[in-house]
Write a structure and sequence with these properties.
The protein has 239 residues and is mostly helical. The protein is built from eight helices and no strands.
């Protein structure tokens, strides 16, 4: 049975962990919001800002991983406290990957030719992917802060929409390239952007599932897209 002093120390450590996780989530979300600005008009300034954010995400991830290890080793937490620590530890990987994909998108935006924003406008599915992906990241990070499992229980349904938009975007880009109206190299770069957005959405699903587990102790089942469509929204997904 921990003493009052030990419990106080654990509580203080958990509060610091929560603050760091909130900051990490905000940095990752800001990185993707900033990166997609380059798709409507390449900018070295925008790209540099994303590169800096990615470095900050990585540094904070490393700090959080160390603090999680210390909390487990020094305080032997149990039940909900332990779930919060282990969930935070796993979430850092997802948030770091989101920041890394944001950096990749920023790098691609710098490789787009002058007038690239015109093609971005011709790919409405890509713009919608950006909108839904950012919404997903915002939803899961907010749910983590508020410890709201219900807000993210059906997050895989939004991910299904992102997957469908990527399929539409893929088909549109291939069609434009076959018609010789879109340069193959430029088209390939837009395909990579779509793929990175899809992966960011997958990591958002991971975070949503981890929030559900952290709050309730429940692990959402793996459900295929087709099965989820036939059973309705109350089904989880793990990419």
């Amino acid at each position: 049975m921990p003493t009052a002093a030990e419990r106080k120390a654990l509580t203080k450590g958990l509060m610091k962990l929560n603050e760091n996780m909130m900051t990490l989530a905000e940095l990752s979300e800001l990185a993707i919001r900033t990166a997609v600005k380059g798709l409507a008009g390449p900018s070295q300034t925008v790209a540099d800002e994303v590169f800096t954010l990615d470095q900050e995400v990585y540094a904070l991830q490393t700090e959080i991983e160390t603090s999680c290890g210390d909390l487990i080793a020094l305080h032997a937490p149990v039940a909900r406290d332990l779930r919060r620590i282990t969930t935070s530890l796993k979430m850092t990987t997802d948030l770091d990957r989101i920041g890394r994909y944001a950096k990749d998108i920023a790098e691609i935006s710098l490789q787009l030719p002058p007038g690239g924003e015109t093609w971005y406008a011709k790919l409405p599915g890509l713009a919608k992917m950006v909108e839904h992906t950012i919404e997903m990241v915002d939803t899961v990070t907010d749910a983590f802060v508020r410890q709201d499992a219900e807000a993210v229980r059906d997050i895989a349904v939004v991910d299904d929409t992102v997957d469908e938009l990527f399929e539409d975007t893929f088909n549109a880009i291939i069609r434009f390239m076959k018609e010789d109206t879109l340069d193959e190299e430029v088209g390939a770069r837009y395909l990579l952007v779509g793929r990175y957005l899809e992966r960011i959405a997958d990591h958002a699903v991971n975070i949503g599932e981890r929030v559900v587990y952290m709050v309730t102790g429940e692990r959402l089942p793996r459900v295929r897209f087709a099965d989820r469509q036939s059973r309705g929204p109350r089904a989880g997904k793990r990419p």
